[in-house]
Structure formats: structure tokens, C-alpha cells
């Protein structure tokens, strides 16, 4: 069965974008360095992590803010480029500007996004893009794994990756750690909550 994976690059101080995020600069001022480990993947370990992601992801989920900030760069093909991986966007309404022939489907709730993304992914995994929608899915208990690409930089501002998660603890198993030259790749399985009697 497809796993739902919250997969993001993060600074050591917990940010997934730098300050000043805007449509012209969706990662904020200097925030692109969070993805430098994947651009050209200069070391074999990071290249392997990136290749595995590309091979195993069959659909994605994003929030409306991520879509609005990034669609001008993605175009009709979406964030996966020529692979044209389906992207389910959580939004209260369909945007007026949607690229013709695009890979985008718009739904009203994170739960519906997971349902449609699992169907679209088939036997492959579902990748969550964006902090807000990832936080909503974590709170709802719908995330199977968290993958963090920890980049050795302190951004000192921006959007935090793990915020607004509620009061309940979210337990994780011990991580799998892959050390690259520009990022340390951490993979955690989320321990599923049991019903309280």
C-alpha cells in the first residue's frame, strides 16, 4: 500500500523557507539553498536519495499557498517536471489561473487529498509538499513517514516546518540516517495512535 510521506528540506533551526517568501521568490530570500543538495546532487548518497524519491513517488499533495507561490515555475507539468506526477491541491476553491492540461486536481480537505492521491499513486508513495498541509495531515494521523533533509544553515526566520501540531505528542521511531555532503537525510516512521478506551 502506498505510504504518505511528509518530505521536506529544513534548516538546522527548523525553517522550510527563508524570510520574504513571495511568488517571485517562493523559498524566501536565500531559501533556495535548502534544495541545493538536490540540484545536481553532487554526492552519491544525496543522489541516491533523490533518485529513490523520483522512482517511488506516484502522486503529491500540496496546499493552496504552495500552489499559488509555485505554479508559475512548475507550469502544466507540476513540480515533478516531465514525469507529470499528479498533484492534489487542498483548496477552498479552484484558482482562476490553472495551466491547460495540467496535472492538478483541487479538493476541499486534506483527508480527500489523501484519498485521491493514494488512488492516483497506485502502488507508489504519496509525497506531501508544504508545511501547512503537512501539519494538518500529521494532526489527523494520516502521515506514515517523515523525511527531513537537514541542511547545515541557520536561516533565523521564515516558515517553520513543524508548528501548529496540537497538544498530542506524535511519536516517531528511531530514524534512518543518510549523511550527504550538503544535507543529512533523516527518515522517521510515524507511530500510529491507538484508540483510547
The average pLDDT is 92
User: How large is the share of residues in beta strands?
Assistant: 25-35%
Mind summarizing the main beta sheet?
Answer: 8 strands, mixed
Series of secondary-structure elements, N-terminal to C-terminal = EEHEHEEHEHEEEE
Low-confidence runs of at least 5 consecutive residues: none
The Rg value, from CA coordinates, equals: 16 Å
Provide the CATH superfamily.
Dihydrofolate Reductase, subunit A
**Main sheet: which strands, in order across?**
5-4-3-6-1-7-10-9
CATH architecture: 3-Layer(aba) Sandwich
**Count of distinct structural domains:** 1
By CATH, the topology is Dihydrofolate Reductase, subunit A
What is the overall number of helices?
4
Query: Class in CATH?
Result: Alpha Beta
Walk me through what this model shows.
This protein is an alpha/beta fold and about 200 residues long. It has a single domain, classed as Dihydrofolate Reductase, subunit A (3-Layer(aba) Sandwich). Helices cover about 25% and strands about 25% of the residues. The chain has helices at about 45-55, 65-75, 110-120, 130-140; strands spanning about 5-10, 15, 55-65, 85-90, 105, 125-130, 145-150, 160, 175-180, 185-190.
Summarize the helices and strands and which ones pair or pack.
Elements lengths: L3 E8 L3 E3 L26 H13 E7 H11 L12 E4 L13 E4 L2 H12 L3 E5 L1 H9 L5 E7 L7 E2 L15 E4 L4 E6 L8
Parallel strand pairs: 1-6, 1-7, 3-4, 3-6, 4-5
Antiparallel strand pairs: 2-8, 7-10, 9-10
Amino acid at each position: 500500500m502506498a505510504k504518505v510521506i511528509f518530505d521536506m528540506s529544513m534548516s538546522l533551526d527548523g525553517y522550510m523557507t527563508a524570510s520574504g517568501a513571495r511568488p517571485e521568490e517562493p523559498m524566501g530570500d536565500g531559501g533556495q539553498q535548502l534544495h541545493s543538495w538536490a540540484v545536481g546532487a553532487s554526492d552519491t548518497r544525496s543522489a541516491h536519495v533523490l533518485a529513490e524519491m523520483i522512482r517511488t513517488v506516484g502522486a503529491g499533495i500540496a496546499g493552496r499557498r504552495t500552489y499559488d507561490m509555485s505554479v508559475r515555475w512548475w507550469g502544466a507539468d507540476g513540480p515533478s517536471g516531465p514525469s507529470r506526477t499528479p498533484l492534489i491541491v487542498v483548496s477552498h476553491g479552484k484558482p482562476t489561473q490553472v495551466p491547460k492540461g495540467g496535472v492538478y486536481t483541487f479538493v476541499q480537505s486534506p483527508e480527500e487529498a489523501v484519498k485521491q492521491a493514494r488512488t492516483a499513486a497506485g502502488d507508489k508513495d504519496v509525497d506531501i509538499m508544504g508545511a501547512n498541509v503537512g501539519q494538518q495531515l500529521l494532526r489527523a494521523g494520516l502521515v506514515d513517514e517523515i523525511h527531513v533533509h537537514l541542511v547545515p544553515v541557520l536561516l533565523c526566520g521564515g516558515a517553520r516546518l513543524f508548528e501548529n501540531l496540537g497538544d498530542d505528542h506524535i511519536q516517531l521511531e528511531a530514524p534512518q540516517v543518510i549523511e550527504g555532503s550538503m544535507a543529512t537525510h533523516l527518515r522517521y516512521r510515524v507511530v500510529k495512535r491507538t484508540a483510547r478506551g
